[in-house]
Write a structure and sequence with these properties.
The protein is α+β, with helices and mostly antiparallel strands. It contains ten helices and five strands; from the N terminus they run αααββββααααβααα. It has a five-stranded antiparallel sheet with strand order 1-2-3-4-5.
């Protein structure tokens, strides 16, 4: 089995986008399962490469079926593959994500999507005390050229208890701490894709090392795990 994302996977999702109903999907499920099996090989291969520079406890490819119970969107299926690479907890924090979707909508992401309120407060307090080290990491040439700028939801003003004029308020008001790297369909299906994704994830390591240190210590630098 080839170690690349098959072009047929992107073609399948293009068809699914136009026929997103259970009858069509059930009729074409054998085609989906064939592509899914190939994509799982790619995700697992990336996970194996990542274990040369990180500790990945689990690789998870998410289900194709959408949970429509509480959603206004009742389409039954996702029109993409999504999967995560879980770091060894509790000492290693942050997560990796790989999203495969046609029409040049594929991307990888790293960071903190929904930090627990206690973790979010700890991160904010760290930035309030000293934001020099995190800025040096995020502005390092290798990291910046790979991941660009920090993205994610943020407050319009300062969180409760923080000074809205603080020099690090741009970091403190964030509710998520995420970086995203996009890929074209041609890049996704190339034989260099696995290597490219692994290298990008590897380049995120200084950011994860810093954030893991923050989230496993108190403001005095004492371990809390």
């Amino acid at each position: 089995m080839s170690n690349t994302i098959p072009k047929t996977a992107l073609l399948f999702f293009k068809k699914l986008q136009k026929n997103n109903n259970r009858d069509w999907f059930n009729e074409n499920k054998p085609e989906f399962k064939k592509n899914e099996a190939q994509v799982k090989v790619v995700y697992n291969s990336i996970g194996e490469l990542m274990n040369t520079h990180d500790i990945i406890g689990k690789v998870k490819l998410f289900r194709i079926y959408r949970d429509v119970r509480f959603s206004k969107n009742k389409l039954p299926c996702k029109t993409h593959f999504g999967g995560s690479f879980h770091r060894k907890k509790p000492e290693l924090r942050g997560g990796y994500y790989l999203h495969i979707q046609p029409n040049n909508e594929s991307f990888i992401a790293v960071g903190f999507w929904e930090p627990h309120k206690d973790d979010l407060m700890r991160i904010r307090k760290e930035f309030e005390m000293d934001d020099q080290e995190i800025r040096e990491i995020l502005n390092h040439k290798t990291f910046k050229s790979t991941w660009g700028d920090l993205v994610g939801d943020e407050l319009k003003t300062a969180p409760r208890g923080f000074d809205k004029e603080h020099p690090a308020i741009d970091l403190i008001r964030k509710k998520q701490y995420i970086f995203i790297k996009k890929y074209s369909d041609e890049e996704v299906t190339s034989d260099k894709f696995i290597e490219n994704v692994n290298n990008a994830f590897k380049n995120a390591r200084p950011y994860f090392d810093y954030m893991s240190d923050v989230l496993t210590t108190n403001l005095n630098g004492e371990s809390i795990i």
